[in-house]
Design goal:
With about 170 residues, the chain is of the alpha+beta class. Helices cover about 15% and strands about 40% of the residues.
Length: about 170
């Protein structure tokens, strides 16, 4: 699995094409629609991002991934939620994570995606993982980065400019 890593201040980000271990059986889908979003049309893309933040000497990790199909006049975000599982998988960073996204973190994922530079279209979040101490703030951060990565992949470099310093 090819992984790209970079730092965003105190957050370390690993980006990959896929994380098959992060697949989980959805128990529900939480969705939101934002009308009148401006953007370009592009191709269907998929990505996963794993973010790590150190707080008080402890590293906290969360992974989100999904697909984006740009187009239309509004942004529709759908996030799959899951139940607790005993299974573990290795994320792009090589660290063990728990697959799935608890329902109480779905709104943070939706908020992060809506706050990202992503344009109109459909975003399906169907890959997720976290450690035992994941916060809604870190999920929102991962979702915002995921939105930028999906935009970047769909529109050849337009999404990550808001996150990385340009010369």
């Amino acid at each position: 699995m090819k992984t790209q890593t970079f730092d965003l201040g105190d957050v370390r980000v690993a980006v990959a094409d896929e994380a098959f271990g992060a697949r989980y059986r959805p128990v529900d889908w939480i969705s939101a629609v934002v009308a009148e979003r401006v953007g370009l049309h592009g191709d269907l893309v998929r990505a996963v991002v794993e973010v790590r933040q150190v707080v008080g000497g402890a590293a906290h990790r969360v992974l989100l991934g999904g697909a984006y199909l740009p187009g239309g006049l509004s942004l529709r975000v759908e996030v799959a939620t899951s139940r607790e599982t005993w299974r573990r998988f290795r994320g792009p960073s090589g660290r063990l994570l728990i697959p799935g996204l608890p329902p109480q973190l779905a709104d943070a994922a939706i908020g992060g995606l809506i706050g990202s530079p992503i344009g109109p279209g459909l975003v399906l979040v169907d890959r997720a993982g976290q450690d035992r101490s994941t916060s809604s703030e870190l999920v929102a951060c991962a979702a915002e980065v995921l939105g930028a990565v999906l935009t970047d992949r769909s529109h050849q470099g337009l999404g990550l400019k808001s996150f990385t310093k340009q010369p």
